[in-house]
C-alpha cells in the first residue's frame, strides 16, 4: 500500500499526525479499446470544440456550464483560494453508535497509520473508541473535496470511511409506495421468515464467495493468450415463473434445509469452538493503556 494523503486526526485539543491508505482495491480485469482487425489501441485526442485545435494537458482547466450554455472557467489557482480548513486535518465533530448510521451513506474506506511520534495518542483514541462502542463523526477534505467521515476500529487499526452528504442520498418516490399495499397473508410472512432462518449464518464470511465472472474472464484471456480454444459457459435453464408465492416459499425452505441444514449446524459448532479458543488470546493481545 502507498500513502495517498498526510494530515492529522483532531479531536478536542489532541492532534494525531497520520498517513492515509486506501483500504480497498478494484479487482476488475482492465480491458482496452482496440481495432478488432489488428488489435491496435484506440487513442483519443483532446481538442477544443471552438477552434478545433488539439489542447495540451497543461492548458486544460475546469469549467461550469450555466443554464444558458455559457461556460465559467475555473483554474487551479481559483480552487487554491477557496477556504478548505479540513484539507490536512480529520476534524472529529461528535461520537455516535455505528448502528445509527445507514450504510447507504458510506463511500470509500481508508486505513489510518500513525506517524512515528504519534503512536501513543493514536492508541489512546483507538482503545477509547473500542471501549465506548462508538464511532467518531468527522469532516475531511481529500483531493479538493470535503466529505463527512466516520472513524472506527478494525483489526487494531483506525479506519476512516467517507460518507455522502445528506442531500446526496436520494429519497425513493416510486409509484407503488402511494398505492394500496397488496394483501399479504400471515403464513407467507412466516414462511419467508423460515427461509431467512434456513439461509442465516452467525457471521458474514466474505471468503466463501468469489467473482465467478472475473475468474471466467481471466481464464478466457489466458486461453486466448496461449492460442487455445475457449470453452463457452454452460447454459442455465430458465426459471419457471412463480405462480403460487406460498408454494415457492415452501419449496425454497425445503431445498435450503436439504443443502445447508447439517453443514450449517456443524459449521456453527466449529465457529463457537474457534471463538472460545480465540477469546483469551484477544484479551492478552494488547496491554492496558496507562
From TrEMBL:
Region (Disordered): 254-290
Annotated function: With LigD forms a non-homologous end joining (NHEJ) DNA repair enzyme, which repairs dsDNA breaks with reduced fidelity. Binds linear dsDNA with 5'- and 3'- overhangs but not closed circular dsDNA nor ssDNA. Recruits and stimulates the ligase activity of LigD.
GO molecular function annotations of the record: double-stranded DNA binding
Record GO biological process: DNA recombination; double-strand break repair via nonhomologous end joining
Family recorded in the similarity comment: Belongs to the prokaryotic Ku family.
Keyword check for DNA-binding: yes
Record's keyword terms, sorted: DNA damage, DNA recombination, DNA repair, DNA-binding
Protein name, UniProt field: Non-homologous end joining protein Ku
Signal peptide positions (record): none
Biased composition (Basic and acidic residues): 262-271
InterPro entries, per database record: DNA_bd_Ku70/Ku80 (IPR006164), Prok_Ku (IPR009187), SPOC-like_C_dom_sf (IPR016194)
NCBIfam families the UniProt entry points to: Ku_bact (TIGR02772)
Domain of life: Bacteria
Listed Basic residues bias regions: 276-290
Native organism: Amycolatopsis rubida
PANTHER family: NON-HOMOLOGOUS END JOINING PROTEIN KU
Occurrences of domain Ku (ranges): 52-180
Subunit (UniProt): Homodimer. Interacts with LigD.
Entry annotated with the keyword Flavoprotein: no
